[in-house]
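Exam prep: given the inputs below (a chain plus adenosine monophosphate), describe the expected output before reading on.
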Amino acid sequence: MKIIKKIDEMRSTVSSIKFQEKSIGFVPTMGYLHEGHLSLVRESIQKTDVTVVSIFVNPTQFGPAEDFKEYPRDLDRDSEILEKEGADYLFVPEADEIYPQGYKTYVEVHDLQEKLCGRSRPSHFQGVCTVVLKLFNIINPDASFFGQKDAQQAIILKKMVKELNLELKIDVLPIIREEDGLALSSRNKYLTPEERKAALVLSKSLKEAESMMEKGQRDSAAIIKRMKEIIGLEPLVKIDYVEIVDMDNLDPVSRIEKEALAAIAAFIGKVRLIDNTILRAKE
Ligand code: AMP
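Solution:
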């Protein structure tokens, strides 16, 4: 696996891959890799000829009071893992390579970026869209792989790709969880053992939502009430939001007709975690 730091070198590498008429699969990440990231890398390796992974802790998607500085980083460990998986290229630009001094161009997907996580992280999705579009322009992938874990991000990026007429496929893959249900996240590293245990109420409440659907419940308010009760059992967990929303426009739905996204964000101590599930009504 070749590690590339400079945009120019990444571009000339992409040109020679394209010249050989090989397809490019791209997996953008912020590093500190876990099985969730690796599920995307494996899918890319399987589906495309050449897999490029990027690791870039993107400063523009963190708010001023957020954990940009503390975000876990371990490039040696990550590159070893990716090498073993069989990724072809690892792109690790410096922040000033992506945002040189005087940088002023940002991409926004209005409305969607203001919902769910956008309420407590007002410029987050602007940062995500900007960096992902820049990476798409540098790497020119045929397909790019994202996790359902960041459901709102995937929905917003799909809309950006469609509306800006980008010629690539966005593949969204299922959430990878620990055996006890906790969704894998680079931020789980910050949890104390006590907090980690408390964090299980998030996945538990989503399971309960699924089981209520199974039993025929279609009323969002009833499901949300029960989810909040479960999360409320853990005093260490502070809810940011619990919502059931339409999968296209992210507006709250009062009744789940076919499918809807049940999404949670919560603080466990200082750590903000998100989780979700797609609720599907049986035919
Ligand atoms: P991040 O490094 O957190 O920016 O995540 C990079 C990619 O990995 C995003 O597309 C995430 O949605 C995806 N991802 C993160 N955690 C998981 C998980 N537990 N399961 C599946 N995909 C994940």
